[in-house]
Amino acid sequence: MKETQIRTFLTCIRCKDETEHTITYLNEQISRVCCNACGKQLDFNIDISYEIYDEVLKRIRTKPTRMTEEYRNHLKQFLLSLPARILSKPYRVYRESKEIKGYFQKYNIRKK
Questions:
Q1: Are the C-beta atoms of 46 and 26 separated by less than 8 Å?
Q2: Is 39 left (phi over 0), alpha (psi -120 to 50) or beta?
Q3: Are 18 and 37 within 8 A, CB to CB?
Q4: N or C, which end of the chain has less CB nearby within 10 Å?
């Protein structure tokens, strides 16, 4: 999951003027637009389960291709890094699962 924020100038409904807004994206979809001047916030409902499922499915499908490319381009580096990557994988999965849990809590609270 990737949550990104950008700042831009938009016309605010409450301020009735062009003010700076923060736009929050979750995996390339707008999840929130917030006026930095008055705090007016517009939330968009995002199906977080679908977003996570879609991202994980893409990563699983492309993993063989990514590993083949890495193997072909940098064989020595690939072979040397493989043991460390295998040992660190459980921790990386745990860390990512905590991050996903945080997104579920954040976006399910906003839905209500």
A1: yes
A2: left
A3: no
A4: C
Please choose, from the candidates 108, 91, 90, 109, the residue with its C-alpha nearest in 3D space to the C-alpha of residue 52: 108
pLDDT in tens, 27-79: 888 999 999 999 999 988 888 888 888 888 998 999 999 999 999 999 999 99
Q: Of all residues in the chain, what percent carry a pLDDT higher than 90? A: 59
42 vs 39: CA distance, rounded Å: 10
Distance of CA 28 to the CA centre of its chain: 8
CA atoms of 109 and 46, how far apart (whole Å) = 12
When pLDDT is cut at 50, 70 and 90, the band that residue 106 belongs to is: confident
Q: Which long-range contacts (CB under 8 A, 24 or more apart) does 48-54 make?
A: 48/103, 48/104, 48/107, 48/108, 51/1, 51/26, 51/27, 52/1, 52/100, 52/103, 54/27
Q: What's the confidence (pLDDT) of residue 110? A: 58
